[in-house]
Each structure stands twice: as structure tokens, then as C-alpha cells.
Amino acid sequence: MTTTSKDDNKVALDTASWMFNIVTSVGIIIVNKALMATYGYTFATTLTGLHFAATTIMTLVLKRLGYIQSSHLPPSDILKFVLFANFSIVGMNVSLMWNSVGFYQIAKLTMIPVSCFLEVVLDSVRYSRDTKLSILLVLLGVAICTVTDMSVNLKGFVAAFIAVWSTSLQQYYVHYLQRKHSIGSFNLLGHTAPPQAVSLLLVGPFMDYWLTNKRVDSYNYAFTSVMFIMLSCAIAIGTNLSQFICIGRFTAVTFQVLGHMKTILVLILGFIFFGKEGLNLHVVVGMIVAIFGMMWYGHASSQPGGKERIHTLSTNKIEEEIGLVKSNELDEKV
């Protein structure tokens, strides 16, 4: 296969991965919003546990069918990943409850500089001036679009701090573990989804009772609400898988930067389906700035020296030729 064909194939696979993530992420937002707002199922942590239980079943079926090969992941790596992931889920839920919407959005935006910091410190990544400026432009555009009121208290700040750092570490570890152990997204999900499901289903009911003062076992599980829960779990399989595929193919920083496209898309869909309430000049300007920043980031980071690891050329070459190429074959088929 020629170099041009390989490049074209990579662009097609990268685009398909992002579209997969965008469609499933926006879909689960819509379904969960209906489930919580319309049917009163406000048990977010327990619902996330059900999501990972469904993902576990999917990985077990694929393993039985031979699509997932046996692989080894040290228990210490699994434990660290599950701790980061669970603190991320609980931290985000608590941050949203204790903080204003404006501060919650600001906290989410800080994940990009935190992810950059982790890559610089842990992976010796160096960013060009244009890459740094494009990230700042994305942050500015999304902030203009989404940040409204701004109030914070001590416990809300602590919750947001834990949520931001645990989420950034979890996303960093998705890419790090795939690269370190030469395993693909399915294999990594097969190792991490079961302990996440068990831990969240054990802790979730207590956490949800603390947050909502409602018991998950006292909820009226009618036919329609159960169907929505099952639909949410089905979409969550795609959401979890697409996140692992995207971060595995790119990095946590790129996933965060381009991931804000989903925020813009949700805003646009809201204006289309729910009228023009909230649509004003500064929101439109923010969208334009953010989209321009994302395009600039894509161009700047792909240029020579735009984003590169220092003194790891030989390791990366070996990974590309031997490890990650083989481990990503199933991801590319999906």
C-alpha cells in the first residue's frame, strides 16, 4: 500500500471514529435527559454502573466469539484506572450539584490545560506556539457559548478539582495503557469495564441517595422508563467504546479539544428543535470562534513540531510497526 493510500485510510478511520463518538455521545445526552427530566430517574451514578455492566456483557460476548484475544493487564494498572474513572464520574455529578452551571462549565474547560500538563510532564510532549494558541481559542469560544452565571463555594471547588483531575488522569490512562501494553480498545474495555460496573453498582445507590435523597429501589420501574434505561445502556456501549478508540488513536488533549464540538452540536440541535430561546449574538460568536479554533488546532497539531514527544522516536516507531498497529485492527474494522 502506498503512503498516500495509508494516509487516506488513516484520515477516513479518524473521521469515522470521531463521528462514532459524536453520534453516540449526543444520543446518550438526549436519552438520559428524557430519562431524568421526563421519567424522574435521577440516579446518575447507578445508571453509569448499568452502562458499564452492559459494556461488560458486550466484551464477554465478543471474547466468546473470538473478536477479543486474551491479554494481560497488571492489577495495579486496572486499579488505578478504575479509581480515576470512578472519582471522575462521582466528582462530575457532585460538582454539577454543588456548583453553578457557569462554574461547572469553567471546570470542564480546565480539563484541556490539565491534560496538556499531564502530557508535558509524563510523556515529554512539546507543543508549538500555534498549537497552544489554537487551544486557547477553543477555550475562549466554548466559554463564550456556555458560561453564564459564575458562583463558587469551597465544597463545590473541591468537588470540581477532584472531577477535573480524575477525568484528565482517566483519559490520559486510556491512551497510556493502550500504548504501554499494545492492546486495543476492546481489550482495554474488557479489562476495565467489569470492575467499574461492580464498584459503581455497589456504591451508586448510596451515592445517589446522598445526592437526591431518593432510593433507587423505590423508583417506579414502568415499562417505558425501563425501555429508556435499556436504550441508554445500549448507546453507552458505543459511547464507552468510541471514547477508548478516539483516545487510543489520538491523545487525551486532542479528544478534549475536538470533543467540544459536541458541546457546539448540542447547542445547535437545541436551537433547531427547541426554538431560538437563548440564541443571541455572543453565543453565535462563541460558536464561530470555537469552530475556527478546532480547525486551527487540527492543522497546527498535524504540522511537523506541532505536537511531538521528545526523545521517544525509536519507541514510537516500534509501537507503530509492531504493537499498536496490531492492537488497533479490530477498532478499525468497527
UniProtKB/TrEMBL annotation:
Keywords: Membrane, Transmembrane, Transmembrane helix. Pfam families: TPT. Signal peptide: none annotated. Its main location: membrane. It is a multi-pass membrane protein. InterPro entries: Sugar_P_trans_dom, TPT_transporter. It comes from the Eukaryota. It is found in: Membrane. PANTHER family: SOLUTE CARRIER FAMILY 35. This is Sugar phosphate transporter domain-containing protein. It comes from Penstemon smallii.
